[in-house]
């Protein structure tokens, strides 16, 4: 227990996590939200030791774990924060039931992997975690006896991605949002002190009714757990239903768990199209990925109706050939084999309020957020893509709250400052290169 105590020794909760200053906006009862790039708050980075802007999402997680008395259920794509792992182990030592579900790509302790066996992205992750020197979170969980499984527990090679990011505490509290439980997602890259982590958020709901829905989703994946009957369910095998709505105090919260088959009327992309189509005055979005033509077509209809639209997308995904951001900008790009997407509908009049935020190199815009008419918030782990809707284990939240909407609008306002709108120099250079190599490209047939 000596090394465990050492890891736990530095995990005191920062008093300025949420803040109570005059600039803080009110929140609806039973709901809290934190943003790791929040310009109104500051915390000391555990990577650099320097004060930085933002809410400490790791401290938010540790605070939630510390409150547990009976049970903690964790379903997250990746967990590589040793303090979080140590806190879970300590809770198990105290008699709290702790269970963890992971994506199979990230379910092996990194210290037991050989860099030569890894693809480039995983090799870079391995090097960063080794350089950080915080220890191996999954190894701590293993040695602490915390039961874990991944999305191969159903006997398959895994769902598209086990992409959830949620924790249920004592069947009373749900913590969820866009952030994986990793240094790079929350604090920044250990090999680049300029980074501040991917732009992310976490929500905490105090609601037995909502916790029951998330616990039910967890149990579908967990089944009998490690060594039990082969009854874990991931991906399409979970047979997900439609949007489920509960009240968190006075606030209506809807949750849809993915995936669904393409023809299923409950699937997430159709829900998004329906929700967006209801916008009357304003639509703000901050998205990691937008690669669904139906949503682009819905935005075209809103444009024709005069709805004010702002959309910021991650720079790394915005300019890819499959990105619908290109449609919104009135252009298209061929892929590496000079094919253009089938059924593309580039806007005749490009949307003026579309662009990419200025982020430190290495950081990503990782939100999956929309705010409709200043009152409805769409968020969760669900990227706006066919993979999220039809292959991955995902959470999509719909929250009817003008108070909460103000917080997400403020985050989008922050990202908007200094954003590059329209066809950026980076996109223009890429267009010129591909035009020289591919001309106008060749149309890809449906299903090709």
Task: Report on the architecture of this protein.
The chain has 448 residues and is of the alpha+beta class. It is built from 14 helices and 20 strands. The chain has helices at residues 2-8, 57-66, 82-93, 120-132, 137-143, 183-186, 208-222, 268-277, 293-304, 315-318, 325-328, 386-390, 402-416, 425-438; strands at 31-35, 42-44, 51-53, 71-76, 97-102, 148-150, 165-169, 173-177, 201-206, 244-248, 251-258, 282-287, 308-313, 339-340, 354-356, 368-372, 376-380, 394-400, 420-421, 442-443. The strands form four sheets. Strands 10-11-18-17-16-12-13-15-19 form a nine-stranded mixed sheet, with helices on both faces. The longest helix is centred in the middle third of the chain and has 15 residues, at 208-222. It is globular, with a radius of gyration of 21 Å. Residues 1-22 have low confidence and may be disordered.
The helical percent reads 25-40%
Kindly state the number of beta strands: 20
Strand percentage = 15-25%
Rg: 21 Å
Report mean pLDDT, rounded to a whole number: 92
**End-to-end distance:** 56 Å
Placed side by side, the strands forming the largest sheet appear as 10-11-18-17-16-12-13-15-19
Given the helix and strand composition, which structural class is it?
A: alpha+beta
Q: Quick one: biggest sheet?
A: 9 strands, mixed
Low-confidence stretches at least 5 residues in length (pLDDT < 50)?
A: 1-22
Shape: globular
